[in-house]
Amino acid sequence: MSAVLTYTPIRFTELGAGATVVGLGGAIAAGTEVPLMLRFPALAARWGSHRLLIAGSVFTAARAIVAAVATDPAVLLAASVFGGLGYAFFAIGGTSYVSEHTPPQLAATAQGIFQGLGNSLAQVTAAAAGGALAAVAGVVGLFAISTLVGIMAAAILWVAVRRGATQVPSVPVEVA
Question: What is the architecture, at CATH level 2, of domain 2-163?
Fold first, then answer.
């Protein structure tokens, strides 16, 4: 997800888009994210946070495939909606899923670890590894590989949540 989000502005530029279109792409993604994040409790109640977490990976893979095959900035701009869906569902779905499957006294810690890995470490890794990969395979190649990784991630998440506990584990913890 981080590589797709980080390198989309570069792909816009490769397609000849100006700064306004690049900014609009970010605005569309953010404009999609915010209402979903606000409505997330209702969406999770209907679909389950685990399904939304998986959907986040699928939508991010969809944005990556569009970025890989697009020949027109307008097509990539339209796919910005996928970026917003992917980020909102992955970030909030993952945080919710982790909280639901962690003892209450450890929920905040588990959420912090998820966000630290899913956002912070992922951004550093995406910038470094994504840059190296783009240098070898090109930005289009980076998006093609990101598509495959996103699909694999969705499959791994699907298997993990199907095998995962449906109840909050009981772990004795001392709270100081």
Answer: Up-down Bundle (1.20)
